[in-house]
Amino acid sequence: MSGPERGADPGGRGAGREADRSPEAWGASTRSVWAGEEEGAEGATVPPVFYGVTFAYPDLDEWAAVGAGERPGHIYSRNTNPTVALFERKVAALEGADRATAFATGMAAVSSTLFALLEPGARVVSVKDTYGGTNRLFTDFLPAWDVDVTLVETGDHEAMESAIDEGADLVYLETPTNPTLKVLDIGRLARAAKDAGAVAVVDNTFATPINQRPLELGADLVLHSATKFLGGHSDAMGGVLAGDPERVETVFRYREIHGASLDAHSAFLLARGLRTLELRVARQNANALQVARFLAEHDAVADVFYPGLPGHPHHDVAARQMSGFGGVLSFSLVDGGPDAVKRLLSGLRLAHRAASLGSVATLVGPPATTSHVELTPEQRAAAGIPESLVRYSVGIENGDDLVADLAAALEGV
Questions:
Q1: How far, in Å, CA of 236 to CA of 240, rounded?
Q2: If we measure between CA atoms, which residue out of 91, 87, 106 comes closest to residue 225?
């Protein structure tokens, strides 16, 4: 068996583990609930939200020590904030990292990481069909700063290794990719990056730390659009980077000056979402696999892209490095024209026709209005993303209901 059908404790360390009470031995749900949560003010079981912009000190020496980093504390919420720090500690615990730093959005996490770690003359190696905003950084913004970017056909690991061997300062991996659900071998490419002296960065948004642990596979840094699965409720935006503490510190210093800081209220909502992460992801893994199997057998569907299907070209890699295959899939119709896509989307009752993904409610839409709205049709085609593709992010609804809803909508196609 593979993926979500393996074992009964995909986020834990197994029922037979030693009676070790340390946080490192906790299962994923235990870490999601308890990591970083010191007892709240007045004994509150839910940590309070620290809305304050600034923090006062009665003693100048103490204030100066905090400012110099000689003792813990907070001075100004653009730099650090107690509620944001709580969210960062929880993500670090889930990813097995020594440190994390948070941002206002997922793209703030991506762009801050790239601009903080690169300089003119540096070279980046990545793949062609990353998320649309990331792709724009690679094709438009980084070259304008005299950063050389090489984008390799996604899934061609030999070509990727060859490009890295030619010299690289940073290797950027997104797996599974958005929206075509291609899978990259993190361990293999992280080794190539290490041999070249490059930093290996992995966008783990689709997989979540429940399904995939890039740092354990050899990556140096892992990032998320926390707006998606980590928050899980489409009510807060944020991004987060975790991993090697020295490099996280470099990015943090850039972020505190660049100013793309996560606000306290969003941090509170994202931390609240994390507490149910494993429960939500387990249901979404199961729902996505059920929906993918249904679509793969439907006469109106041409192709289904989901790494949990044995026919997926990267299924073996996914089964080896993931404990679940995620809550997002994409598919194309036999009648691949725009009218067919419109009829399908209009016929769905249990799906919001909206951007984003990873929510408790199912979200659906084509890349032209979701992941790659920033790109032209020609740019999407160059990235291997057809206009007829439909991205379907399952929620935590009952799987049978989602299948019935899709079946009824496909009748209209």
A1: 13
A2: 106
Question: What pLDDT score was predicted for residue 92?
Answer: 97
Mean pLDDT of 10-23: 52
d(CA 366, CA 130): 15
For the chain, first and last CA: distance in Å?
A: 34
- Exposed, middle or buried, 245 (CB in 10 Å: 0-12/13-18/19+)? middle
Rounded Cα distance, 357 and 328, in Å: 8
Which strand (E) or helix (H) includes residue 335?
Answer: none
Scan for tokens 């991996």, then name that residue: 173
Closest CA to 217 of 184, 249, 177: 184
pTM of the full predicted structure?
A: 0.92
Q: What is the DSSP letter of 5?
A: G
In degrees and rounded to multiples of 5, residue 167 shows phi and psi of 120, 125
Helix, strand, coil share (%) of the chain residues, nearest 5: 40, 15, 45
Instruction: Give the CA-trace dihedral at 246, 248, 254, 260, to 10 degrees.
Output: -170
What is the DSSP code (8-state) at residue 222? Answer: E
Distance CA(284)–CA(290), nearest Å, equals 10
Only one residue has tokens 């899939």, namely: 329
User: Which ranges constitute the DSSP H helices of 127-238?
Assistant: 132-136, 142-144, 157-165, 186-195, 208-211
Partnered with residue 240 across adjacent β-strands are: 102, 224
DSSP 264: H
- Which amino acid would we find at residue 245? P
Euclidean distance between CA atoms 348 and 407, whole angstroms: 9
pLDDT in tens, 192-201: 999 999 999 9
Q: Looking at the annotation, which residues are catalytic?
A: 78, 131, 203, 228
